[in-house]
Amino acid sequence: MPKKREIINQLEPYVPGKSKNEIAEKYGLNQDDIIKLGSNENPLGPSPMAIKAIEEEVKNINRYPESNLEELKEELAKYSGVNPNQVIIGGDGADEIIEVLGKTYIDKGSEFVVPLPTYMYYEFTVQNYEAKASYGIWNLEHNCLDVDSILAAINENTRLVFLCTPNNPTGGLISQEDIRKVLEYTDALVVVDEAYFEFSNTNNVNLLKEYDNLFILRTFSKVMGLAGMRIGYGLSNPEVIENMHRSKPVFSLTKLSYVAALATIKDKDYIKKSTEYSINEREYLFEEISKIPELKIYPSKSNYLLIDTHDSGIIASELANELLKKGVIVRDCTSFKGLDEFWIRISVATHKENEKFIGILKNILKDYKNE
Ligand SMILES: Cc1ncc(COP(=O)(O)O)c(C=O)c1O
After folding, report:
1. Which of 14, 67, 88, 127 counts the highest number of beta carbons within 10 A?
2. Ligand 1 pocket test target in 18, 121, 125 with most atoms within 8 Å of CB
3. Which domains does the chain have, with CATH numbers?
4. Which H or E run contains 53?
5. Model's pTM, two decimal places?
């Protein structure tokens, strides 16, 4: 066999949410009947403007995409309240931007800081550059960042600090006061992941004027309804953006993704409707699940909710499996570092699907009690 990099032996494969296709095949179900609550997508489908733009652009796919992505940068700058030279766009979603952050800021042996539990892809990606993870704590009792634990994890080798707000999978926000504390404590780049900021009615763009070590990460996969097109973006000061462009793949954003993103960002009604819809459904799910005594649900500022199943006695993998048999995909959180085997995360879906899910969930819990 060809000799590979030593680090590859130490890497664990990433465990993503399951697709409808996989589940339909495995359980002999009809794809259309499957309720997908596993990956925090937009349940309403993409913007009709995005579909139209893709249809019109299809005939041009024999040509390379643009590399400077001018118009999309301008639209994103307007949407976010920054200048176009403060924007970087990634073609494998926000995940590509995380990859580029690793390539740009990590030397072998340097360190990065993440609280636990949080989005696992930071560690999954950055460790590939032979950096060492140093962990802080996400306080589960109060669903907030333990900022002192982050400061304690930072040292002179720290290059990147990842803070996710709203935090995936817990749904809690990080206060701007705590973000400032981290920015002021270190020269390392502080990556504030706002993949879900639209659902929280807050953001941290104002801090970009004050701190040159802040990077804000965002995506078109959530409220923008384009998870399958793989578009992410980041906001920072022009120097950080310029440095990152030196290691970013040049043509990673396809022509179809480009036009879809441009059409969606201009479709303000779609963004507004999608945001409001998911917030309403999140509150509906929170209310309904709060009534189930053996489950503990966490209030969320995002489009997903974390559920603690300890009191029910059912481990997450078993509950997720029972739900799968009934055509409901949820995120078993066992693979999230910092959570034990009793946690699932559910995304909001359409109202009809959410109602159906609640019914199925209650039945599974009743059957489990009676066993
Ligand atoms: C917190 C967070 N950041 C980033 C991403 C990556 O998004 P994308 O689909 O743009 O790669 C996700 C995806 O689930 C996420 O939950």
Report:
1. 88
2. 121
3. 6-45+269-370 (3.90.1150.10), 48-267 (3.40.640.10)
4. helix 48-57
5. 0.97
